[in-house]
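ok new one. same drill as before - C-alpha cells go in, u give me an amino acid for every spot. 111 of them this time. try not to just spam alanines like last time pls lmao
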C-alpha cells in the first residue's frame, strides 16, 4: 500500500515547491556602489515565450538585454520582470538648490 503525499508531511522546501505561488514569483535584491536594486519576476505558463520588462526610466536602455537574458533561460511562458532602483544615500537626504546654476540660467534667459 502506498502512502498518499500530504502537504503537512513534507519539509518546508517540499511545501514551497508544491505551492503554486512559489512557482510563479521570485524576488531578489543586490547592492553595489551605494545603490540597491531589487528584482521581482512573475511567471505564468504559456505556449509561447514572452518577456515583459518593467524598468525605471533611467535603466530603460537595458530592457532588450534583460529580455534576451531571460529568454536564454526559459523556453516558454510569460515573464514580467519588475526592477526597482534606489540610491543608498537617498533615504532621508535633504534636497538642495544650486543657486549659482539657477542664477546662470536666469541670466541666460534674460539675454
Amino acid at each position: 500500500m502506498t502512502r498518499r503525499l500530504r502537504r503537512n508531511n513534507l519539509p518546508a522546501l517540499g511545501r514551497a515547491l508544491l505551492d503554486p505561488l512559489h512557482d510563479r514569483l521570485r524576488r531578489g535584491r543586490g547592492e553595489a556602489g551605494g545603490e540597491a536594486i531589487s528584482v521581482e519576476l512573475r511567471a505564468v505558463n504559456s505556449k509561447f515565450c514572452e518577456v515583459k520588462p518593467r524598468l525605471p526610466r533611467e535603466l530603460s536602455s537595458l530592457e532588450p538585454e534583460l529580455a534576451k537574458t531571460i529568454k536564454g533561460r526559459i523556453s516558454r511562458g510569460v515573464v514580467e520582470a519588475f526592477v526597482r532602483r534606489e540610491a543608498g544615500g537617498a533615504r532621508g537626504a535633504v534636497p538642495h538648490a544650486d543657486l549659482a546654476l539657477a542664477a546662470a540660467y536666469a541670466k541666460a534667459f534674460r539675454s
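The chain is about 30% helix and 30% strand. and btw The radius of gyration is 23 Å.
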